[in-house]
Design goal:
The structure is a homodimer. By secondary structure, chain A is α/β, with parallel strands linked by helices. The first copy, chain A, has three domains: 48 residues, Arc Repressor Mutant, subunit A (Orthogonal Bundle); 109 residues, NAD(P)-binding Rossmann-like Domain (Rossmann fold), CATH 3.40.50.720; 30 residues. Chain A is built from seven helices and ten strands. In chain A, strand 2 and strand 3 form a beta hairpin. Chain A is globular, with a radius of gyration of 25 Å. Chains A and B meet through helix 4, strand 9 and helix 7 of A and helix 4, strand 9 and helix 7 of B. Chain A binds a DNA duplex through helix 2 and strand 2. Chains A, B: Keywords: Cytoplasm, DNA-binding, NAD, Repressor, Transcription, Transcription regulation. Chains A, B: It is found in: Cytoplasm. Chains A, B: Modulates transcription in response to changes in cellular NADH/NAD(+) redox state.
Chain lengths: 211, 211
DNA sequence: CGGTGTGAAGAGCTTCACAGCA
DNA sequence: TGCTGTGAAGCTCTTCACACCG
């Protein structure tokens, strides 16, 4: 498949084709009228724009279950990320290989970051250690941090932090699950009301509709 | 602090106070004019609306590093989630306790879900196993799935799936990181141009501005 | 003809500004 | 007086619709 139309891509992605074309147009005019987009060229342009064509050395601090899971995660390599080092505060972990990479002690943190030109750090430590680790990362030159610890990190201007809270997604599911149950109950109540009397459902469910 | 104003909450959250009041108003009129919101009552109402006051039994399928990390994750219990069971396909794992819960074999999946009235399942298996596990969960009565496996799951209507891709957040950081670098380079180029000749930067950077 | 690129219309979300109530 | 709740204005993002080009 050498070319693809905005209509096809939009159907595959579940969005409107006009939106897709408009979004692409911000990257430049890479399509051909009457034909569509050259797949290979488009992939390259999007990859370049997203930074996938670069090599991003990353350090992971805190090699517990989560840190190990991240180190083993295959998705990183394919998106331009390279795990430059695994760092843990436990001296017993030092030297132990995880995902084929030997764990290094926290003492080495500054040197590792400097030697590898690391600008992105991942924090997978317990909550108590996160802020301190964060400060050391920033002081050593890291300007983007992905935080898995359940704490809000404070950082100086110019440093980006993204927080991943594994329970938030569950909470969103639970929210919708609750809605499903509520709607059933409401539908049932309406049915009852229709069958029995003129009284409707108690109407206490507010009109909230999040993503 | 028994009450709090929309202004205070907005400042803490980094949003506009009018937006906060409007959002709250969708849940009902829980504030008092001239005073603010009763903290305890507000917390309760928001918790109830979000479903945090309910008990949600959850099963985690696939007890590798990630599954173990999830099982150990403290944030679940405090948000109304209860890990009803850990399930793995490896018979060697069966009976082994993870986070104090004995791992059970996949054979038990249907029974566990039925016995515990589970409606939310977490998939932390390798990509290859995910779709099959998903189908068994759905057949057994699960209607919400949180998918950590790097695969797109297909499910029947009425089943919610949320996919967590651990590398996407990194990619967003890398994107901004690239922008930072690009802006520096551009600023430098502009400085050069100003200093040397009339020729500007090559102007190939398109005007994209994602979240 | 077929499909992109885009001005214009439309929808939804955010902010303003203030009436109204404790 | 002080702060909520909310109509209206403003803004951004999405979709429509079509000129234009290969």
């Amino acid at each position: 498949m050498p070319t693809v139309s905005s209509e096809e891509l939009a159907a595959a992605a579940g969005v409107n084709s006009a939106k897709l074309r408009k979004d692409f147009s911000y990257l430049g005019s890479y399509g051909t009228r009457g034909v569509g987009y050259d797949v290979e060229y488009l992939v390259y342009q999007i990859s370049r724009e997203l930074g996938l064509t670069q090599d991003w050395p990353v350090v992971i601090v805190g090699i517990g279950n989560l840190g190990a899971a991240l180190a083993n995660y295959g998705g990183f390599a394919s998106r331009g990320f390279r795990v430059a080092a695994l760092i843990d505060a436990d001296p017993a972990m030092a030297g132990k290989p995880v995902a084929g990479i030997p764990v290094q002690h926290t003492d080495e943190l500054e040197k590792i970051i400097d030697d590898n030109g690391v600008s992105i750090g991942v924090i997978a430590t317990p909550a108590g250690a996160a802020q301190q680790v964060c400060e050391r990362l920033v002081a050593a030159g890291v300007t983007s941090i992905l935080n898995f610890a359940p704490t809000v990190l404070s950082v100086p201007d110019g440093v980006d932090v993204r927080k991943v809270d594994l329970s938030i997604e569950l909470q969103i599911l639970a929210f919708h699950e609750q809605r499903k149950a509520g709607e059933e109950a409401e539908a049932q109540a309406v049915a009852e009301a229709t069958k029995d009397s003129g009284k409707g459902p108690d109407g206490d469910v507010p009109a909230v509709m999040p993503a």
